């Protein structure tokens, strides 16, 4: 039960008595009440004396008359006028029966006159005494009511002070608002309580007790529909409405108030040092009187406590936002390495979505690739049956999203179910099924046409717009994600180019063991132009090539892949080695983007009997032949492809022993350091020494891996330049 109940409207009062008119509070003689009382007492004494004197002249039993009047006065004072009159009548009857003389007519007349005088005197004195008694009773009741009022006021103030601590136990404005509404009902006996935040010229409902479906928390009403609030807004004073049904309100306000069954209402302003921030509205479903000054003072004190709680909640939320911002920054730093992984673009996209989910406390994250007039979903966390990787959604130029992407700035959508955004890539049923309420669209990886990717963060509850600090952190996250996607694309291109520089599948030959290996340089994304290839011929021989295009990067790698592809085509066409070298030279001259670009190659074929070798060496390190010793296959020097536009190279025919092994390599292998930090190169001699230790052993994949690992260890880390190797051995 509440400690303070608003009094209902009083019913019309009965007309006051004569005594009440003279002696009631506000009466004409209230100012002279003591003089009136003393006069009444003196008048009573005079009446008793007059009655006694009159009676003594009419009847010999005058003491009885005085006694009857005295008894009637006492009875009237104790129990009212009627009881006093009854006492007087009883005294008269007793006197008649016991003392009166009815023997003569004169004696009987005297007795009747005496009785009449006694009764009139008793009636007059009874009325006066009754009025005095009622006045005393009213004064006592007034004092009692004042005492009860004082006690109730004190208890209410104590109650306000006691529960004001409850206002500060919540760390959010929403929690404080709910507590304020609940305590307002408990304190003032209202039927409903609503707390609004003043947002410019609008009112936003923060909390309502009890809650109503037609006015959910978060509803916004324009101030214009509440003209009665102007005084409250201008003077920051409470307002009272005895009957809201008689007000001229806007339709929204009328539905809001009358629809809740509110009849009387009191509005309390909630202000902080900056001005009015909120309005507390108390409603009663019956008509109540205007709050008394004491009650209004308590209401103001309540509003002051609510304002302090409001400010405390805002400070707590600001502190929470600051801590959340700090934690978000830490998560961005912590999670950034998790999506800088070496993997496919889809794997990187999945890692980005998982990191976004954990970083920004959102309920869903999705990453799309923008393909001109459509969006392709790369990944979504958590998975959704209507949004699977690879799905494509149309992106028409007239869509709001298309215009927002052209702005290149993050776009926050407070309500994704807003009907104004129905024209979008996703069907309405898909948007509804995700359960998202707010979303942030984050375009990434820009080129001349705009962003190449779109990251969408979704929340299953309404979110406030992110501030500039949070947007800066989100943009930082997007930059990291864009870099990871760029690296993933580069890795993918690197893998494709690397695959184009090597045989597409393991090589198998009935008589030869063939091993190839390719290692990019220290800067993996700077893929070089080294390439290698081998292809068994239908007659049992083997065509091979190894080469090195000058420079690094996509151009060098692409040119190397082009030369290797051309070599394979020419070999399949049965072109001779000389013609093959000539075509490769002319191809390089036509495809290179820089006249300084050149390429070194060793291309040739091993005859089916495995005892003859024909090759062209255009400026490349000579292959090493391993028999019972190690020696280079020296041939007269020839220039690389490129500087000499005549494109003519001699073909050298060499004899091979019955058991042999050949190692072809690019200069990145022998240009490695001989020791970590040393200036001396690994060189051909150290390579020959290593091969000498392998005489009699096959140059299989394990041996080639061991060679590469040993040279890398001597180098102190990855090779500075690309390395390609081709090992060909006669099977035992």
Structural features, described:
This protein is α+β, with helices and mostly antiparallel strands and 732 residues long. The protein folds into 4 domains: 141 residues, no CATH class; 147 residues, GAF domain (Beta-Lactamase); 148 residues, GAF domain (Beta-Lactamase, 2-Layer Sandwich); 230 residues, Phosphatase 2c, domain 1. Helices cover 45% and strands 20% of the residues. The protein is built from 18 helices and 22 strands. Strands 3-2-1-6-5-4 form a 6-stranded antiparallel beta sheet. Helix 5 packs parallel to helix 9. The two termini are 103 Å apart.
Keywords:
single chain, 732 residues, Beta-Lactamase, 4 domains, 6-stranded antiparallel β-sheet, 18 helices, 45% helix
Offer a concise description of the structure.
The protein has 732 residues and is of the alpha+beta class. Helices cover 45% and strands 20% of the residues.
- Identify the strand order in the major beta sheet: 3-2-1-6-5-4
- Kindly estimate the percentage of residues that lie in beta strands according to DSSP: 15-25%
Q: Write the CATH homologous superfamily of the largest domain.
A: PPM-type phosphatase domain
Molecular shape = rod-shaped
Q: Which spans of ≥5 residues are poorly predicted at pLDDT below 50?
A: 1-5, 7-23
Helix content: 40-55%
Instruction: Report the CATH C-level class of the largest domain.
Output: Alpha Beta
Figure out the total of helices: 18
Estimated structural class: alpha+beta
Domains, number: 4
Largest sheet: 6 strands, antiparallel
Radius of gyration: 54 Å
Rounded mean pLDDT is: 77
End-to-end separation in angstroms reads 103 Å
Number of strands: 22
By CATH, the topology of the largest domain is Phosphatase 2c, domain 1
| CATH architecture descriptor of the largest domain | 4-Layer Sandwich
């Amino acid at each position: 039960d509440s400690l303070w109940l608003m009094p209902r409207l009083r019913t019309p009062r009965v007309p006051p008595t004569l005594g009440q008119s003279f002696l009631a509070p506000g009466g004409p003689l209230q100012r002279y009440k003591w003089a009136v009382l003393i006069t009444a007492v003196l008048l009573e004494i005079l009446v008793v004396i007059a009655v006694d004197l009159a009676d003594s002249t009419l009847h010999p039993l005058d003491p009885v008359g005085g006694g009857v009047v005295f008894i009637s006065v006492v009875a009237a004072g104790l129990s009212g006028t009627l009881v006093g009159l009854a006492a007087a009548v009883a005294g008269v009857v007793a006197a008649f029966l016991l003392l009166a003389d009815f023997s003569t007519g004169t004696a009987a007349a005297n007795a009747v006159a005496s009785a009449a005088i006694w009764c009139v005197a008793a009636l007059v004195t009874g009325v006066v005494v009754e009025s005095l008694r009622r006045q005393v009773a009213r004064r006592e009741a007034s004092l009692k009511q004042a005492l009860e009022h004082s006690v109730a006021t004190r208890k209410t103030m104590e109650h306000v002070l006691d529960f004001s601590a409850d206002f500060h136990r919540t760390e959010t404005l929403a929690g404080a608002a709910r507590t304020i509404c609940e305590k307002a009902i408990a304190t003032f006996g209202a039927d409903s309580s609503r707390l609004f935040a003043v947002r410019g010229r609008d009112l936003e409902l923060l909390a309502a007790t009890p809650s109503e479906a037609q006015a959910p928390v978060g509803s916004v009403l324009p101030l214009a529909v509440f003209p009665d609030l102007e005084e409250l807004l201008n003077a920051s004073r409470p307002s009272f409405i005895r009957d809201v049904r008689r007000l001229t309100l806007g339709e929204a306000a009328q539905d809001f108030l009358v629809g809740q069954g509110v009849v009387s209402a009191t509005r309390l302003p909630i202000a902080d040092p900056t001005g009015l921030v909120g309005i507390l509205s108390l409603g009663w479903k019956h008509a109540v009187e205007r709050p008394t000054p004491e009650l209004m003072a308590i209401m103001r004190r309540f509003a002051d406590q609510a304002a302090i709680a409001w400010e405390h909640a805002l400070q707590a939320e600001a502190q929470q936002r600051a801590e959340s911002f700090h934690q978000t920054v830490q998560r961005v730093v912590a999670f950034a390495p998790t999506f800088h992984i070496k993997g496919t673009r889809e794997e990187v996209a999945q890692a980005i979505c998982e990191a976004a989910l954990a970083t920004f406390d959102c309920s869903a994250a999705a990453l799309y690739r923008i393909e001109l007039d459509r969006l392709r979903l790369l990944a979504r966390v958590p998975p959704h049956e209507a949004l699977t990787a690879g799905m494509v959604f149309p992106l028409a130029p007239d869509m709001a999203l298309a215009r927002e992407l052209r702005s290149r700035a993050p776009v926050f959508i407070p309500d994704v179910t807003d009907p104004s955004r129905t024209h979008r890539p996703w069907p309405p049923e898909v948007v509804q099924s995700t359960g998202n309420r707010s979303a942030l669209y984050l375009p990434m990886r820009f080129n001349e046409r705009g962003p190449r990717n779109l990251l969408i963060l979704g929340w299953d509850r309404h979110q406030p717009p992110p501030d500039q600090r949070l947007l800066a952190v989100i943009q930082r996250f997007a930059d990291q994600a864009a870099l990871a996607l760029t690296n993933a694309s580069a890795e993918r291109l690197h893998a494709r180019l690397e695959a184009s520089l090597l045989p597409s599948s393991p090589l198998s030959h009935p008589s030869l063991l063939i091993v190839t290996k390719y290692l990019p340089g220290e800067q993996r994304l700077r893929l070089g132009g080294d390439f290698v290839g081998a292809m068994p011929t239908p007659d049992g021989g083997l065509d091979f090539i190894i080469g090195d295009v000058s420079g690094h990067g996509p151009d060098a790698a692409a040119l190397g892949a082009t030369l290797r592809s051309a070599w394979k085509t020419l070999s399949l066409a049965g072109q001779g080695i000389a013609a093959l070298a000539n075509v490769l030279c002319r191809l390089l001259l036509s495809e290179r983007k820089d006249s300084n670009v050149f390429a070194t190659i060793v291309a040739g074929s091993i005859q089916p009997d495995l005892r003859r070798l024909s090759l062209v060496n255009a400026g490349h390190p000579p292959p090493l032949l391993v028999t019972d010793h190690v020696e280079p296959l020296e041939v007269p020097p020839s220039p690389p492809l490129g500087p000499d536009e005549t494109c003519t190279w001699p073909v050298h025919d060499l004899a091979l022993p019955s058991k042999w092994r050949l190692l072809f390599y690019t200069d990145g292998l022998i240009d490695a350091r001989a020791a970590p930090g040393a200036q001396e190169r690994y060189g051909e001699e150290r390579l020959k020494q290593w091969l000498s230790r392998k005489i009699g052993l096959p140059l299989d994949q394990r041996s080639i891996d061991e060679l590469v690992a040993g040279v890398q260890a001597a180098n102190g880390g990855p090779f500075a330049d690309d390395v390609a190797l081709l090992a060909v051995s006669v099977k035992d």
